[in-house]
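PROTOCOL LOG
Step 1. Enter all chains and additional molecules of the complex.
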Amino acid sequence: LSGHVRKGISLGQSWFVVSLVGVCIGLNAAIISIVTAWLSDIKMGYCSDGWWLNQQFCCWEVEGDEVDGCESWKPWTTVSLGRWIIFIGFASALAFVASHLVRSLARYAAGSGISEIKCILAGFIMQGFLGFATFFIKSITLPLVIASGLSVGKEGPSVHVACCIGALIARLFEKFSRSQGHLPCLYKANSALSSSPTGKTREIVTAASAAGVAVAFGSPIGGVLFSIEEMSHTFSIKTMWRSFFCALMATFTLSAMNPFRTGKLVLFQVTYERDWHFFEVIFFVILGIFGGLYGAFVVKFNLQVAAFRRKHLVNHGVTEAVMLATLTAVIGYYNRFLRLDMTAMMAILFRECEGGGNVHNLCLSSSQWSISFSLLLATIIRIGLVIITYGCKVPCGIFVPSMAIGATFGRMVGIMVKALQQNYEKSGMFMSCVPDVPCITPGTYAFLGAAAALSGVMRITVSVVVIMFELTGALTYILPTMIVLLVTKAVGDFLGTTGIADALIRFNGFPFLEKEDHAYNVAVSRVMRTDLLILPDRGMTVKDLEDLLTSTAVKGFPIVSTDGSRKFKGFIDRTEIKYVLERVRNTRDIPQSTTCIFTTQDYDTDSVEMEPASFDADEDLQEGLFSSTLSDDGVNFSPWVNRIPMTVAPQLPLEIVMQLFKRMGPRVIIVEDHGVFAGLVTVKDVLKFIATEKLDHGPSWDERGGL
Amino acid sequence: LSGHVRKGISLGQSWFVVSLVGVCIGLNAAIISIVTAWLSDIKMGYCSDGWWLNQQFCCWEVEGDEVDGCESWKPWTTVSLGRWIIFIGFASALAFVASHLVRSLARYAAGSGISEIKCILAGFIMQGFLGFATFFIKSITLPLVIASGLSVGKEGPSVHVACCIGALIARLFEKFSRSQGHLPCLYKANSALSSSPTGKTREIVTAASAAGVAVAFGSPIGGVLFSIEEMSHTFSIKTMWRSFFCALMATFTLSAMNPFRTGKLVLFQVTYERDWHFFEVIFFVILGIFGGLYGAFVVKFNLQVAAFRRKHLVNHGVTEAVMLATLTAVIGYYNRFLRLDMTAMMAILFRECEGGGNVHNLCLSSSQWSISFSLLLATIIRIGLVIITYGCKVPCGIFVPSMAIGATFGRMVGIMVKALQQNYEKSGMFMSCVPDVPCITPGTYAFLGAAAALSGVMRITVSVVVIMFELTGALTYILPTMIVLLVTKAVGDFLGTTGIADALIRFNGFPFLEKEDHAYNVAVSRVMRTDLLILPDRGMTVKDLEDLLTSTAVKGFPIVSTDGSRKFKGFIDRTEIKYVLERVRNTRDIPQSTTCIFTTQDYDTDSVEMEPASFDADEDLQEGLFSSTLSDDGVNFSPWVNRIPMTVAPQLPLEIVMQLFKRMGPRVIIVEDHGVFAGLVTVKDVLKFIATEKLDHGPSWDERGGL
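Step 2. Run joint prediction.
Step 3. Record the structure below.
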């Protein structure tokens, strides 16, 4: 019975933890949104009704287009030059504070964090990356950075912040933290379903990443898909469901907080009245190609900037950020599309011309050339700014800047197509347009351009479709969106672009196997490490063992039989050895000459069949094990030896070993030749091999998933 | 160079095959839609302007509500009783033709096919299930069945038809069929990335299933998610992308064909003007509970009906179908919500009351009680009909009937909530409603009820959200939809319901490992088979081998060393042995006493490292291998022996073995104890063990993914 109660509690705890994570993410996102909106407006002026109001709330009662305020909203000065200087001054100051906080308190708060989280979810350990300092500093610097006007988005960092919340809360709860403890291997083998000791925490972090995207875009299902397509390493229905639940809780909380007082989750609600025409597909293809090229271009040059930064700017993070903010403000102030907040700008660009969409003369035929030029300029300048800014030492995401670039370019194409159609109304191509009725909606081109650029730089497709239409509600444009993304993907594949997150993983040399499978035509025996420190199953003294531990930093040791046949007996982690030695020392004094026993016959084949109750592996049980640990023969490590790690034959092709790593998630794979220990392989070995051998090529078009 | 050209061609072929599959699925769906619409209307009358026009096209020019036609549309008779009889007569006749065709020409065309396809995608082989006869008969009987008015949907069968198209086209192309050929194992190991010989075809079938859902609902992204959440066994980004592309092609084709002349993909476009209120969440919870109960109820009783059918009605498929159709027509004729086509009915129920939504007096407060009663009756009767109808020997799906049931129930709840709000306008609960303005939208309750029922019976969540909002475009209701599905899932988990597809898989005893992982606390050594026919690596004569093959139907043989140590040497398939023997016989006469050699030293560790070019494994190369097959020593089978199948240790817990089956997809796993052959395990062994041991319980709430 007690087992049932325990199970019930543990289950309730799971629900509770995920809910709590979701709610916290929602709250945090709401606060960040409110602060960001206020800080963004403070650059231009202040509210005379109350300093804490941003322009929108200050002018709440006043109807009108959103370009320039109301009476209560006072600009800092009426002198144009003065405004410009104050604008720049605020931008630099905000960037300074943000980068200084990051530099002095939490260096991991810099960047978007998506690459690192991908690695963490794949099993890589980065102490502190999901810690409290990172969470706190990233949360408070994010509004500063966005308000500073730097060409960076808050979506990537939001995901990182969300993952921090997930990891922090998960760690608070015993259930999740216990799974990281030093359980004897027998229990681990039994509870190995989540395929790694930190499996539970990882699942929570995956769910949190979904919630992060969900609140950043107001797109709960898009978040779930993003966590599947981009973040999670292995896919399971359970993780998907957890992500769904977490995203729901977060979005619901955000929606209840209602930070924008619009009652909408949708960031840029548009309802396109007109359907699309088949002839437009050729223009959609242009947008798709732009997306692909943009992605390739940005990834390539951003990596070069990153290399430059690593070489020359390591200790100048603050200066760099301030310079960039100043530069952005100086350049951006005089282009109407650059000066505006990127989200606000997209909302304007996505609009239909009918019904108040003619902001900034976007819809006037007479100004079509000047507007197009202005949009083109905004596109080009923004691309340059994104390339130099993304990756600097403040929290920065690339989602929204990419979408903004796509939107300006798309709107430009849209305006040009509209002009074309109006001038050649009679031509065969535009036959399907009804005369004297608007036919082309430039706003949809902006929308599709945004989707293309986002997909081009991240190399994700399905999530982008869902995010885009959760963002806007433009359901009739789902087929065009898919067509555009198809072209974007084809172009990206053709150019061999990797997504920016994966490119940065490679650049930083994190141990991460890409999701796609490649064929290397190499057996695992060529990759495995054979120069290993091996423990004999019997005969080693405690002193030998301790000397070994001090002389090396190796994380785990294979155990082989002492009879010279090198029969493989098991694997033990360094931490487990240290833990057992320490516990034993606490119990009683042991002489240095005590022998260490790594295998006994007691734990035989059937010993894994235990009562479910014993799973819980609580302290009592561990005590029991410890009392049997010290026999007259010596220190018995065998309960902590993993006798059934994943083993493969030396002839197995490398790609299957890589699949095993990816799909089953072991930390090491033992190579065993008919029972004889041959070597050991880890993800790092595989990556080192791939990097050093420079195996003929990168993955081919086909292999990268180009159908 | 030739390798590159070949690769290019093969790549082009992949694209081409997937496109072709998508286009064919779209065409087929368009034809089925048109025929179904015409056949459904023919029960009531005919078009005097042309017999080939259905009511909609016949009355195309005439405006008005869609309940009762126009002048050109003539009912068969003006006598009410006569109409009733003709209606029933048509229904029975259509059901008779459909069931007779299925019975005599393609028995696999019966049912929805989703369960079977899930098994096929997991590696189970069902000859003919995706064959031409199945495709053709299912395509032509589907409109008949839908038109007969049986409480079945066309979505499940559409997926089956789509998968048939995928499999047929894939088989047409050498590339896909070749992967099923008798390649020497060396090549297989190298090209094992798709983890099974029929991997390519399976990927195409997965993509086709996405396209099937996409065209059935006009929901391309919903289709992709359905293929991930429900159909595919292992998830990969590549498969996701292929599904995306295939669904896009299919939907685009369907959209270009425009079978309904509405220019919309969206089946029931609704734009809910009013947002939802937080107090409505409690009513949403009721809908969610309904969904969960409905699912549990239908799955339970439908299985009992299936058992009854198997026992008593095996040879009365045609009679059964005709009886059911007659019964449905007799009962349904007098309830306005049962008589209508289910899709048309849902379109009406989803509507807002404003702007012509008051069809059948659905919105009149004065008739709210009679309408509610009518809806309740429709709900109850339809549930009964679905339980007895789903699974009868005609093509039948359960998606749309479930949604229809949910919609009638939901609308009823909605009407009641509206009445409640109007009577207690002043109560605290309805505070957030603006006075004298409509507050509750009963149509949204119908929408949410449909989502709940669909999710309850299929046990899918994320796909349902996306399908529902691709169906309607009701983006503002995404949070309520998620809340409802959350409750539905919780109720379903609490009641221990499995999705109907999985329940039928179990009922039919197909070898299928469920996606969720359970802990069994058993080592693989207890599950493995040890009473095996084992081949010695040397010393067997051709006669021995042939005798063995005739005496047993076993599909594959482990090979062990002859020296008595039972060292494991490899595994060979029955088909490979037969193939080699046959080929060798064709080359020259071999005496019965020739020895068979299964292992040589030639193919050693490094032999897997071959030039990529040799992958293509074309005929020349095979010839070369064959010439070396017959040496003086005997027949050399070694190139066909898989020396590196997946092996595990006997102590490995069963659940990890199950994960290996699911994630890596091998057909057999060898159990090897330090190099010594111990046994062999297949999915069937695992399932047999689970079934016979009746391991304590079904999966627990937690294990089933209840967070």
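Step 4. Note key features.
The first strand of chain A starts at residue 45 and ends at 47.
The domain at 278-508 of chain A is CATH 1.10.3080.10 (Clc chloride channel).
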